[in-house]
Amino acid sequence: MDDRLTALADAVIAGRYAEAAELTRTVIDAGVAPKMILDDGLIAGMNVVGERFGAHEIFLPDVLLAAKAMYAGMDLLQPLLEARGIASRGKIVLGTVRGDLHDIGKNLVGIMLRGAGFEVIDLGHDVAPERMVEVARDEGAIIIGMSALLTTTMPVMREVVDRLREARLDADVKTLVGGAPVTEEFANQIGADAYAYDAANAVEVVKRLSDTR
Amino acid sequence: MSAILEFSFREIAPQRQAVLERLGIPGGIEPPGHIGELYLAATELLAESAVPQGVLTEVAVEEFAVIFEGEGHNARRSPVGDIYPCADHLALFAATLGEATSRAIAHGFETRDFALASMLDAAASETADALAEQTERRYESMLRERGWQQQDGGVLRYSPGYCGWDVSGQRRLFARLDPGRIGITLNESALMQPLKSVSGVIIAAPREAHEFAPTFDFCAACETFECRERLRALRAR
User: Fold this and answer.
1) Do B224 and A181 touch (CB under 8 A)?
2) Within an 8 Å CB–CB cutoff, is residue A153 touching chain B?
3) Cross-chain residue pair B118–A64, CB shorter than 8 Å
4) Which of A12, B21, B67, B104 is the most buried (most CB within 10 A)?
5) Does residue A211 contact residue A181 with C-beta atoms inside 8 Å?
6) Three state DSSP letters for B54-83
7) Cα angle vertex B85, ends B81, B88, to 5°?
8) Cβ distance A94 to A121 under 8 Å?
């Protein structure tokens, strides 16, 4: 492993965003392949952060500081990846369902998914089921991730699942649900493909869903 | 009676531990110094941006029955539906931290200060809850000053969107209360703007009227159990 990429990963892990940007610039200028910088530097760092968070060794703000550092590097890398036609690990549509405005958990999932190399289309909160399905179809997304905090808005998740099925998109677009009142049992009841109990778990579940496609 | 209420930030300032818990940092664990610094920066931003205000309007039980019915989407049975007919007094309320706090949170996410924005969001949510609590306390004080002498009286608030009261109930509540007076509006989904706002009804009733077992249909899907905490706090007053 290139020491410079290890240093870049370390800067991401520590949340040192200015250093992460500087190191990314250095390895780009040195001619290191953009995909290698992404995988062995930025994503490698975020993977460590995700593992430590999952093991309760660090706290959520640490993950978010690391994400800022990761993004600082990605800003420099993204144009190069696009110019070389290097695709992300897949597009994920995220949204808090119609009638619900609680989106902090959904935001965290988005931040961590980007850190894991996915392209995230965040539709925000109070998102209508038809919009989620339309965007997923138009953008070629592989997963729709839905969040709800209110028990009264959980049924909207079923609407999304049903609409995907009616549009015959359910084989191509998987569904992931989460949020404080949401359970695995509820996910099964509504026919969702997966459930995640927190942001770190969501990343694992999305990786699994995308790998099994 | 209808009144606009002003609050100082000091009255509703969040509890540090409660904010940290919203970010998954459990009580009894002292987080590293940089997280403590984030908390201080977030609460400073919150104190600068928040303009806490509330509005109260008393309604009769019969009038509330129509407001509560809303658009007919409530659960078949709910705590509020059982409690309000026993009320001595009822007041519709709404309160907000104001738009500037929401803008500050959004700005934090847009500029990728995710950690600070999340801490600010958590602190603002905690503060909005404290604002609702203070609104409830103010109404109780008003009632006591007016001679509400119920010995075992209890005053508690309930909000659309929770415990079987469908969020669409906001529309009739807003039509009667007019929270536009303090800058709160509803969107098409009956959600409030600014985001850090709370609304509902404050019910003054015999304390036992507020008691209920969490065995309603929707309780099975609830994991917060906040009703139990609220009832415990009411009994302790």
Assistant:
1) yes
2) yes
3) yes
4) A12
5) no
6) EEEEEECHHHHHHHHHCCCCCCCCCHHHHH
7) 130
8) yes
